[in-house]
Amino acid sequence: MRNSMGSFALLCTIGTPATLNRKGVTTSAARRAKQASPFAPFQRDVPIAPVLSPVRTERGVDVYDVDIREGMAEILPGFQTPIYGYEGIYPGPTIRARKGRAAIVRQRNGLSFDSNVHLHGGYVPAAHDGHPMDVIAPGATFDYSYPNEQDAAFLWYHDHAHGRTARTLYYGLLGAYILEDDREAALELPRDEYDVPLVLADHAFNKDGSFRYEENLDLGFRGDTILVNGAVAPRMRVERRIYRLRFLNASNARSYDLRLGNGRTMVQIASDGGLLERPLERTGFPLHPAERIEVLVDFRKFRPGSEVVLHNLLGDPATTRSVMRFDVVRGGGSEDARIPAGRMRTLERLPDPIASHRWDLTLQTGGDIQWKIANRGFDPTRIDVRPQLGSTELWQWHNPSERVHPMHLHGMLFRIVERSTGVVHPGERGWKDTIGVQPKETVTVQPWFTPYKGKYVFHCHALEHGDKAMMLQLEVV
Ligand code: C2O
Ligand code: CU
Predict the structure, then answer these.
(1) Of ligand 1's atoms, which has the minimum distance to the CA of residue 120?
(2) Are 91 and 174 in contact (CB under 8 A)?
(3) For residue 129, how far is its CA from the centre of ligand 1 (angstroms)?
(4) Ligand 1 centre and the CA of 121: distance in Å?
(5) Ligand 1 atom at shortest distance from the alpha carbon of 459
């Protein structure tokens, strides 16, 4: 077998719960299947996480119950991999919410250590944002209240207990949160099974099928195996129809550059914070940790039997170059979805910025290596910046380092104003909550400090960087 299955690595013990030392289980099916490598791409159909149903609706608010707990997942055919999961599965169940209809997600922490839940990209009151210091003790529950008042967007939820996210997300604590609204519905985009969240993450495995994790504070964790929705480089059978593919990069620290085979085009319709102004034809796109891009792919252009591979041009090692494959099958019937031809929305005009800040992203190398923002590391007792509610500012991410830093702001969205390395691509001119700042680059963004007052964090979403402790705190006043 190739990939990393030969090297047993000790799980680093700092902040790692003892339960993670549980072994994976090799089933007899795995022994039977010996010849076919569990790492071979395109062997399995892409799994689709179940959509969570509310347990009840109280005065127009949908109430969901989620258990945060350990589970086993069949990620490599014939092996059982211990995970942490919302409802014990990886990725966790998808929540589909509707703008104007609030939701309460009751999270019960069934783990033996603190946990919490951040709704990434959500407009959420500070007390419900999953601030790294607001945690749910083992055995306790917390009701996260989500107003769902922002525009349709592909959000996601994940653990955010301080100092642990590199491990807890790696071991499975994340899921998709899809917010829909009327404007988007009027566009007649593909729905139901033609609207597919695709969660990308790189992993490595021990011989027994358990996840292998090795801490690397500089690079961040890099695995040698790409999982999509928890399966190794899977295949997806597609009818000759239009599909809406929602890509989320849930990797610890890996960036992708995704292309369809033969330079086929996709139509980008949305980024982190929802719809772009206009659909945009692209042959590929970069995707940094925590970013989302949504595309429409028209498989009517392909003959039945076509196999269309989605490649990662940044794939290193080579085993990370194939992400998944679309297998075009016969049939599909008549298409009622469409690819929008013109304007999909008008982006809000932002108020003029009233302040500016420059945040240097640097590596401190003396003693323990540590990533810093403006020479500071995270201190929950300190507020680093106090923007005014409803205002905008210009924030400059200045990156003299050799690493990409996907910088993320909680609780609000921003637009990209300028990139020192070139023009801002039209695909990133919509609302964003995370931006990959390239080595030696300065990116200027304009956050809109709305809609809530309160304490939020902003940080690097290379999880090892954020944990140690490339994160500052802002208070909207
Ligand atoms: Cu997706 Cu503070 O995180
Ligand atoms: Cu970083």
Answers:
(1) 1
(2) yes
(3) 10
(4) 8
(5) 2
pLDDT tens for 454-471 read 999 999 999 999 999 999
Tell me the HSE value of 16 on the side-chain side, using a 13 A CA sphere: 18
Residue 207 and residue 187 in contact, taking contact as beta carbons nearer than 8 Å:
no
Using DSSP bridges, classify how beta strands 370-373 and 292-298 pair: parallel, antiparallel or unpaired.
unpaired
Q: Tell me the whole-structure pTM to 2 decimals.
A: 0.94
Dist. CA 471–CA 385, nearest whole Å: 12
Looking at the predicted structure, is the pLDDT value of residue 30 above 70?
no
- Residue 466 CA: which ligand is closest? 2
CA-to-CA distance for 152 and 158, rounded, in angstroms? 19
Cross-strand pairs, 473: 457
Residue closest to 133 by CA, chosen among 343, 387, 347, 410? 410
**pLDDT above 50 (res 1):** no
* Residues contacting ligand 1 via CB (< 6 Å): 118, 120, 158, 160, 290, 408, 410, 459, 461
